[in-house]
Amino acid sequence: MQGSARLPLARLGMIILAAALLLSAAGMLSARQALAAGSEIETKAEKKDLIRWVDFNVPCEAMKKAIALDIMTHDKEIKLNFIELLAYLAARNGNNWKGYRDKQLDDLAQKLLDGASMSELTKDLKHYNYYLEAYTAVLSGFVGEYEIEVPDAEGGGKHWERKYGIKVFSPIAKNFPYSHCDDFGNKRSYGFSRIHLGNDLMGQTGTPIIAVEGGIIEAMGWNQYGGWRIGIRSFDKKRYYYYAHLRKNFPFRKDLKVGSVVQSGDVIGYMGHTGYSRKENVNNIKTPHLHFGMQLIFDESQKECNNEIWIDVYQIVRLLDNKRSEVRKDPETKDYYRVYGFRDLSSFRPLKDQPLKENMWDNPIGINPGVKP
Ligand SMILES: [Zn+2]
How far is the CA of 53 from the centre of ligand 1 (A)? Predict the structure, then answer.
């Protein structure tokens, strides 16, 4: 689980490869056999210490507090990183957050601001590196610099402002009610016996569904279990967001397709109750709700396999409950669009294989293309 095993094993692979090449030079092994022996060891070495599962149960209150400390110090000489703060506490409390109090983070912050370094403070914490890697995978797209449109003080206009803070949104649009509980791990029996790997957000059919984080649409269409569903991969490729059971007949924002780039806060589709059917466009789910899930991908081999890593997003949905994207319906197309544009400045990286529209910054995707802002 820890990163420390990586180097020695990789090095062992190199030594075996070198030995095999020597044997090959001596005519005892073919060069191809030698290379195969070396690369097999290398692959095993790399795979051995991949993170295999993440129990994400950091309470919303701890995330809020750590993020507040991060934001408070982001332009100061000593910057506190909210992911490091949370990884420290998880390593200290053995991932048991039952006794969490804000004071624990305040005390840690004070030590760091007084000049202690994180490497000093964590030198005896065996699992700190594991939690740091796991939480970085979950949360690295959540806080940073961004620009967002905000309403003018007077008049009906809006203008852009640069900010640092939470740059992800609730999956449910502003002014649309929903309810949920922590249902991760509950039993499900449709198809085959399995556990529930997400959070169900109950609401009304047609409620606009929002991209929590920006990314690239990787899957869109019918799936026997999820019904009409959309899957979005974060720009850094570590998180796959899954939104399922979307509305019959009109599940997605019409201008989206596989490969489209979305920004956090964009409308992507609409709540419904499709799914549990091999046949497309069937409402076989009893109650309208959004199934929202997050998969972690440390290595591409983990994307579709028998050991996919899905985390409990319940506390994340709670964290984002007051981070809602305001939307407006286009009476002609019946699609909803976000009211306030958004540009991610800190983690957005145009990908080589994903050419972006040149005018993307001037006309952020997600704003109704038919309406001049
Ligand atoms: Zn569900």
Answer: 20
